[in-house]
Specification:
By secondary structure, the protein is α+β, with helices and mostly antiparallel strands. It has 16 helices and 10 strands. It folds into 3 domains: 55 residues; 223 residues, 3-hydroxy-3-methylglutaryl-coenzyme A Reductase, Chain A, domain 2 (Alpha-Beta Complex); 88 residues, Hydroxymethylglutaryl-CoA reductase, class I/II, NAD/NADP-binding domain (Alpha-Beta Plaits), CATH 3.30.70. β9 and β10 form a beta hairpin. α5 runs antiparallel to α10. The relative contact order is 0.15.
Length: 402
């Protein structure tokens, strides 16, 4: 080890090159020892892990020195009545926020008692939007017109880059001399960012060659990836999922310790009016909490919590109770690729019965989207109930967050 550390110190060996000379576990150990020496910090816990790292260092991370562990809790059982997820589930939630799992668990109890959450996927498509520079606005319109009239050709070149992806549509947007082509793909069980990026590059080269517009970037931010964006709320990105449940007055009183009218008012004044007054893109109580906890547990890209948090929660007053629903316009999830292959995350996906590719292709990713949406509904119900009953501060105190 000393030899490698000395070479790292004198610059003759780079941190990223250790795996070229050593097996993965040894490379990680040497790199960690070097960082310990450089920072004067012992890292024994970071260096203690159970996941296999041969795949991880090739696909998931660079310059690995160990792992950071996040406590994993479980909420449930939760009855989900989706088209792809139809059964009772225990939700894996990775978080350090006290009271979160307890809150979701209460929501799961209420949903299950009510017969389960109805869940449907309204739209499914991952996007990438290359941006082109046109000579002038006339040329920009010509580029857009070419794209609109050559969809079959664009589809052929896009789908030549993937065994599984299918191009759904190509929509153009012009701003001055900038032309954006928002490509939307069915990526089956993969979340699909790599897939659509590779396809987007090829499509971009085709459009550049045929129109004379200069391909500036494969991603022009009209996608929009990992940033708050109204286009994702309106057109969707990933899975657009809706979950809902009808609760009787007795259920609201028994498990939420409030009444239907108060629950309706809290949602209206907080989630709808309050969010509108703040110009928020999220009209919900805490959807990001559940999305983040499930994403970390199940190997999803945590940065996509940005899109997943733009949920809309509604409470409708109906005879004898309320109908509560959540709409997640942009939920990018997958069950193959990315972090889903990490051992611990794969076990969490297996808990839900969605690890790996589905039959037919895409079924597992859709099922995961439905389960996440049902989990968000459970979380929203519980927090709205706590707010309506004035129990929020007490709950946080009881679970160590006072």
């Amino acid at each position: 080890m000393d030899e490698y550390i000395e070479r790292l110190k004198d610059g003759s060996l780079k941190l990223y090159a250790l795996e070229k000379e050593l097996p993965p576990e040894e490379a990680v150990r040497v790199r960690r020892a070097f960082v310990e020496g450089e920072t004067g910090t012992a890292l024994p816990k970071v260096g203690s892990f159970t996941i296999g790292i041969d795949r991880v260092v090739k696909r998931n991370i660079e310059n690995m020195i160990g792992t950071v562990q996040v406590p994993l809790g479980v909420a449930g059982p939760l009855r989900v009545k989706g088209e792809y997820a139809d059964g009772t589930y225990y939700l894996p939630l990775a978080t350090t926020e006290g009271a979160l799992v307890a809150s979701v668990n209460r929501g799961c109890s209420l949903l299950t008692r009510a017969g389960g959450a109805d869940v449907r996927i309204m739209r499914d498509g991952m996007t990438r939007a290359p941006v082109f520079a046109a000579r002038d606005v006339v040329h920009a319109r010509d580029v857009a017109a070419w794209v609109e009239s050559h969809t079959a050709e664009i589809r052929e070149i896009a789908e030549s880059t993937t065994k599984h992806g299918e191009l759904r549509e190509a929509v153009t947007y012009v701003a001055g001399t900038n032309v954006f082509v928002r490509l939307e793909f069915d990526t089956k069980d993969a979340m699909g960012m790599n897939m659509v990026t590779i396809a987007g590059q090829k499509v971009g080269e085709l459009i550049e060659r045929e129109t004379g517009a200069r391909l500036v970037a494969t991603s022009g931010n009209m996608c929009t990836d990992k940033k708050p964006a109204a286009i994702n709320l309106v057109r969707g990105r990933g899975k657009t999922v809706v979950a809902g449940v009808r609760l009787t007055d007795a259920m609201v009183a028994d498990l939420l310790k409030t009444d239907a009218e108060t629950l309706f008012e809290v949602n209206y004044r907080k989630n709808l009016v309050g969010s509108a007054r703040a110009a928020s893109f999220g009209f919900n109580a805490h959807a990001a909490n559940i999305v983040a906890a499930m994403f970390i547990a199940c190997g999803q890209d945590p940065a996509h919590v940005v899109e997943g948090s733009t949920a809309i929660t509604t409470v409708d007053r109906v005879d004898g109770g309320v109908y509560v629903s959540v709409t997640l316009p942009s939920l990018p999830v997958g069950t193959v690729g990315g972090g889903t292959g990490v051992d611990t995350q794969q076990e969490c996906l297996a808990m839900l019965g969605v690890a790996g590719g589905g039959d037919p292709p895409g079924a597992h990713a859709k099922a995961l989207g439905e389960i996440v949406a049902a989990g968000v509904l459970a979380g929203e119900l519980s927090l709205l109930g706590a707010l309506a009953a004035q129990h929020l501060a007490r709950a946080h105190q009881e679970h160590g967050r006072g």
